[in-house]
Amino acid sequence: MRRLILAPLIALACAAAPARAAIDITDDQGTPVHLDKPAARIVSLAPHITELLFAAGAGDKVVGAVQYSDYPEAAKKIPRVGGYTSIDMEKVAALKPDLVIAWKSGNRDAHLGKLRALGIPVFINEPRKIDDVAKSLAQIGKLAGTEAAGAAAAEAFRKRHAALAARYSSRPPVRVFYEAWNRPLMTVNGEHLIADVIRLCGGDNVFAKLPMLAPTIDVEAVLAASPEAIVASGMGEARPEWLDDWRQWTKLPAVAKGNLFYIPPDRIQRHTPRILDGAERLCGQLEEARARR
Q: Tens digit of pLDDT for each residue in 128-151?
């Protein structure tokens, strides 16, 4: 009798197991993504996505990545599938991924359409706020079957973010011009993740109201905005020489006060846990600016 009772229950549990393994999630573009089981072969189409995968405990599942996927050190050994705007579709297909994680702002829609046409699930990642980095870590952990690691990384990120916000977000505002590049002269608007970092530190992005996410501007616009601090990135760890080009404008408050600052791009331009390293550095720089008033 006991066997007669247990047998149907065991059969029911076995039948339900595959359903529990299936993953249904909505990506950052609002598109539903379905996986029959956690992804074991993942291709990353942006350097920040590669870094997020490692941070969420899924680094060993990444079989392909784009150029400049250089963090952590193990990411440098992953086979390349081109650049984020020049994806080699044949290389991606040859890797037989069961998931591609893409970047809406960096990857071309035509490439993503071709991947979907091949039957490869595509998950779009597009963080716009600091909190979205934690969300991305949790999502990636779920997609890769490393849910516990992803959730732990997300929680640690949120705690550090909250501590920085408590310390700096209510400080007296500092008018900031963020110089993403010099030729052409580029900045970010208020919807960009970097603008959220500026807000976290009590900064006021002087170009927040521009309509484009990463607009091109001119020197006259910067002079008219009269920023109290200029923060630049560049291409690597070295401080860009062009940051000092602003010194010719001696009446510009940022120049007059000596508030020309630099943050390595991978600490503030990548949508990863390391953005809080950049935030901590920026917050300290804006404190210097306040002290020079």
A: 899 999 999 999 999 999 999 999
State the DSSP H helix or E strand holding residue 87, giving kind and residue range, or none if neither. strand 86-87
Statement to judge: residues 116 and 199 lie in one domain: no
In whole angstroms, give the CA distance from residue 253 to residue 240. 20
Distance CA 211, CA 191 (A): 9
R_g over Cα of the chain: 22
Chain centroid to Cα 3, Å, comes to 54
Tell me, yes or no, whether 164 lies in a domain: no
The residue segments making up the domain with residue 217 are 169-291
* 199 vs 281: CA distance, rounded Å: 14
What are the structure tokens assigned to 259, written together? Answer: 């508030």
Q: Indicate if 118 and 199 belong to the same structural domain.
A: no
Q: What is the pTM for the complete model shown?
A: 0.88
Grade residue 245 by pLDDT with cuts at 50, 70 and 90: very high
Residue 65 to residues 41, 161, 251: CA-CA distances in angstroms?
11, 28, 46
Into how many domains does the chain fold? 2
Does an H or E element contain 172, and which? none
